[in-house]
Structure formats: structure tokens, C-alpha cells
Amino acid sequence: MNSLPDQFHALVIGASGTIGAAFVDLLEQSPRCASVRGLHRQSTPAIDFANEASVADAAQALANGPRYHLIVNATGVLHDGATMPEKRLADLNYPQMQATFMANTFGPALAMRHFAPLLAGERAIMAMLSAKVGSIGDNRLGGWYSYRASKAALNMLIKTAAIEVARTQKNSVLVALHPGTVNSRLSKPFRGEIIGRPAEAAAADMLQVLDALTPADSGSFRSYNGAELPW
Fold first, then answer.
1. For residue 127, what are the contacts with CB-CB under 8 A and spacing of at least 6?
2. 172-189 per-position pLDDT tens digit
3. Residue 192's pLDDT band (boundaries 50, 70, 90)?
4. How many angstroms from the chain centroid is the CA of residue 36?
5. pTM for the predicted model, two decimal places
6. What distance in Å separates the CA atoms of residue 223 and residue 220, rounded to the nearest whole number?
7. Backbone angles phi, psi at 112, to 5 degrees
């Protein structure tokens, strides 16, 4: 992350997950990174997107510390072991849709609300992990109803938040970031261990993309290879 100030501070939300942990490991290895903080349900402070108060409390607990030059939200859910992505309209039900939106949309939205004020005044980046299947324009196969819709809604929230944040934090970048297929628990039922990239490689790709973004790119939807994705 050569575009960030030397001795920058980073925060990873969802640091206990495969991709989140990879971000933490890479940032800890960077001599230019002064500190990296990882938050998850068992961290101190804890953050749980199913508990609205925990998001605000976690941000408040960090408010007296350093401002962050990089914030990555690496949370997300595609399945929980008991339920799999819906293939047909006949599979739709409230509990699964509500749980998917809670993890993929509502929680990240609150993270933007409470953690965007913690961004540094100089160059700073907030990246929210999205997914290419959340692209409405790119949807040619159908299926995965809740997951697609939750990521499409997240993309709109990021675009809208970027417009607001730019008014007061002109050096900040908010971006929706597609990690590609990664060998993780999330992708395992879909041959992720065969077709997916190692988490560290995916995190390195995404950090390289983030490093090249400017405030003019804020509110965009990017792939791990830097390509701008259609909404």
C-alpha cells in the first residue's frame, strides 16, 4: 500500500474469516503499516452484525485511537451449512432472506455509518467486499436470489455513502470490491478448493487494486483484477 502514508493504520472487520485473516496477515507483514486491528464476534471490542448496538459500540471503543487509512469489511454469508443459496423462486423464504441481508447488507451499512468517521483526514480507503454476482447487468444465469440481491443492495449503499462522504472527506475512497473465487468455507460447496485462489493471493490482489484507486474512483464497483464491474 505505497499510496497510503508511511506508518498507516488499518482495520479489518471480519478478521476471523478466511479472507479477513489473510488481509490481517499481509498488513502485519508490511513495514509501512504501523498497526492493523482485526474485529470479529469474539474480538475486543466485539462486533456482530446481528447485534446493531455492537457495531456502534465497537466504533466508539476505537474512536480515541488513531484514525484509519484503510478499513476493509471482509464479512459475508452465502450459506450457513443448513441452508444453501436459493436456485428457484419456490425456495424463497423470509428467514433465509433476512439472515442473508443482515450479514451482507444491513451490517456493512452500519459499519459504514459508524466507521467512516474514523477515516483519516489524509488519503484513506474503505473497502466493502461485495460480489460480481451482485451485478444486475452481469446476471445471466439467475439463481442465488438472496445473495445476489443482498450484494446489489450493498453496492447501492456504498455508491450513496461515497457521495455523502466525499462532501466532508475529500481524500477518502469508498469502494465495493469483488474478491473472485477464493478457497474458503464460503466457496467449499461450490468447488472452491479446486477453482478458488488461496486467500492470501486474493487479499494481495485486492490490496493492489485499492492502492491504485483515487478519490475520483470512490463509489465504484471493482474486481480483484482492477476492472470496473457493471452495476
1. 70, 71, 72, 73, 174, 175, 176, 177, 206, 210
2. 999 999 999 998 666 566
3. very low
4. 16
5. 0.93
6. 10
7. -65, -45
What's the rounded Cα separation, in Å, for the pair 14 and 185?
A: 14
Residue 69 phi, psi dihedral angles, 5° rounding: -90, -20
At residue 80, the pLDDT reads 79
DSSP string, 59-107: HHHHTTSPPBSEEEE----S--SS-----SGGG--HHHHHHHHIIIIIH
Task: Tell me the one-letter amino acid at 90.
Answer: A
Band (207; pLDDT cuts 50, 70, 90)? very high
Distance of CA 224 to the CA centre of its chain: 12
Dihedral angle over CA of 131, 109, 74, 228, nearest 10: 40
Report the 10 Å Cβ neighbour count for 89.
Answer: 8
In the numeric block, the cell 425456495 is attached to 91
Q: What does the pLDDT read at residue 195? A: 57
Q: Which helix (H) or strand (E) holds 10?
A: strand 8-13
Each residue's pLDDT tens digit, 138-149: 999 999 999 999
* 6/23 Cα distance (integer angstroms): 18
pLDDT given at position 196: 73
pLDDT of residue 191: 53
Find the largest Cα–Cα distance for the chain. Answer: 53
CB distance 176 to 158 below 8 Å: yes
